[in-house]
């Protein structure tokens, strides 16, 4: 009997499948994203099989497991994000805006690993660029003599047949949206192609025990294009982010089966490629001006690493009927919440003021611990009074105006001290938790936001 082709209508934004076409996706509320896809063939071996199931064996939790042997990539920032090196057989998805530097990073990585004393075989397969284009980049990066196996290919069957015969240690696929399997009848980059090609490549990586890097494009909303399921299939998801106008690039782990998430690696994009940044705090504070109102230094934490960044606010009378709020590098809902608390609990009149907030250097902060620094910058700008130049600040603000404790205060204070700061404004719960170990930094503890206002009087 001929195999029946199954047709599904799949949202290209979120991957939800429907039996019939419809204009709007019920799941993600996007319009015109639902496309007909024929499914079947490779990557979907569960469809149409008649085999009976085998009995599986259960084992106890304890037992001898293999120790994960990690491969150091020789790029410290990358090893840190990966949780201490590359795990053979694992798959890493690297997402990021076009032109942010994904191909550059992965080419540098590939060359770095290929040059290790053990010489693992490294394969760089580009579906986006021709061989000459990659060669030009390699020349620019002065990596043209590295023993990397380079190919330009998009047919996953060919890639698998080739890699099956190889002794690959690391394989880079740039990008998964250009790969296709001819058995799947939809265009490359569609949800079913991405899902099926990734499935086949991941299966091979596990079988041959090589580390697989997949480059993934991101959508307008900033998530990796294709189904969310791709993020579930891989072991590690890294986002490469940064503002196009800034030279800093941040590699952030958002999922990691072999290490901590929220860990960041910091790079600087220079003429000769990406250069690691050992001391990001010094870099983020390098262009800080002295004695300017509306600026304060937040002692933040990115994964296990403390990072000091400058938070800038500008408050000016509005000329619109509703005041403007613009935020770069922080959550605008969080800003609205902090402003509401300042209005309700401290009586500040912010409804007639435009407020602009900027995290200097192009870093994106998601920690609630930045609340207090944001509030401080806003109040400082409103009063036109600068904060002392040598003070850092951190703390979360609750809706009743209380300042809540944050994780790892001592680590934050240590970093501040290292960079020459002599005082810190912190939550009041700090001493209760643990007395800060650093006596030569004066700690001012505040319990609620009203105290912030007093600071300027
Ligand atoms: P690329 O790695 O092609 O980005 P992606 O793969 O994420 O789309 O990076 C391209 C950008 O990086 C390009 O705008 C030029 C810049 N660049 C440098 O500034 N220095 C360099 O050494 C290289 C190779 C690229
Ligand atoms: Mg690229």
Q: TL;DR of this structure?
A:
By secondary structure, the protein is α/β, with parallel strands linked by helices. The chain has helices spanning 76-81, 102-114, 131-140, 156-164, 191-208, 229-233, 280-284, 332-346, 371-383, 409-418, 430-433, 450-455, and strands spanning 6-11, 17-18, 34-39, 91-96, 121-126, 148-152, 168-174, 211-217, 236-241, 248-256, 264-270, 273-276, 295-302, 305-317, 325-328, 353-359, 391-393, 396-397, 403-404, 423-427, 442-446.
Distance between the termini: 85 Å
The appropriate CATH architecture of the largest domain is: 3-Layer(aba) Sandwich
Assembly state: single chain
The molecules bound to the chains, other than polymers, are: thymidine-5'-diphosphate, magnesium ion
Major β-sheet strand ordering: 6-5-7-8-4-9-10-11-12
Strand percent estimate: 25-35%
Biggest β-sheet strands, sense, barrel: 9 strands, mixed
């Amino acid at each position: 009997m001929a195999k029946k082709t199954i047709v599904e209508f799949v949202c290209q934004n979120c991957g939800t499948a429907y039996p019939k076409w419809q204009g709007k996706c019920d799941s993600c509320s996007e319009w015109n994203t639902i496309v007909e896809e024929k499914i079947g063939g490779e990557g979907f071996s569960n469809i149409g099989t008649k085999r009976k199931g085998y009995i599986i064996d259960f084992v106890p939790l304890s037992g001898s497991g293999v120790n994960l042997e990690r491969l150091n990539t020789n790029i410290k920032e990358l090893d840190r994000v990966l949780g201490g090196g590359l795990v053979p057989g694992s798959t890493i998805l690297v997402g990021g805006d076009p032109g942010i530097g994904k191909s550059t990073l992965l080419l540098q990585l590939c060359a770095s690993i290929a040059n290790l004393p053990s010489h693992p075989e490294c394969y760089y397969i580009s579906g986006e660029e021709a061989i000459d284009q990659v060669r030009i980049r390699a020349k620019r990066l002065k990596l043209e003599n590295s023993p990397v196996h380079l190919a330009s290919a998009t047919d996953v069957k060919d890639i698998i047949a080739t890699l099956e015969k190889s002794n690959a240690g690391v394989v880079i696929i740039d990008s998964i949206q250009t790969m296709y399997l001819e058995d799947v009848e939809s265009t490359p980059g569609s949800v079913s192609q991405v899902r099926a090609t990734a499935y086949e490549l991941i299966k091979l990586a596990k079988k041959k025990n090589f580390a697989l890097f997949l480059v993934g494009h991101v959508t307008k909303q900033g998530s990796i294009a294709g189904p969310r399921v791709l993020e579930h299939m891989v072991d590690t998801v890294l986002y490469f982010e940064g503002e196009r106008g800034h030279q800093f690039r941040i590699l952030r782990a958002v999922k990691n089966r072999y290490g901590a998430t929220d860990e960041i690696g910091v790079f600087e994009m220079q003429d000769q490629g990406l250069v690691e940044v050992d001391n990001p705090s010094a870099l983020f504070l390098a262009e800080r001006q002295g004695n300017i109102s509306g600026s304060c230094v937040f002692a933040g934490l990115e994964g296990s690493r403390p990072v000091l960044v400058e938070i800038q606010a500008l408050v000016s009378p509005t000329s619109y009927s509703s005041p403007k709020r613009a935020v770069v590098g922080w959550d605008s809902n969080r800003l609205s919440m902090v402003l509401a608390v300042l209005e309700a609990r401290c009586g500040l009149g912010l409804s007639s003021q435009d407020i602009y907030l900027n995290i200097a250097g192009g870093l994106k902060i998601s920690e609630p611990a930045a609340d207090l620094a944001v509030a401080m910058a806003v109040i400082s700008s409103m009063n036109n009074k600068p904060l002392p130049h040598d003070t850092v600040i951190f703390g979360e603000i609750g809706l009743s105006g209380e300042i809540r404790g944050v994780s790892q205060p001592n680590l934050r204070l240590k970093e501040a001290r290292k960079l020459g700061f002599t005082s810190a404004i912190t939550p009041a719960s700090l001493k209760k938790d643990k007395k800060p170990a650093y006596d030569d930094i004066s700690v001012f503890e505040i319990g609620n936001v009203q105290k912030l206002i007093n600071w300027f009087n």
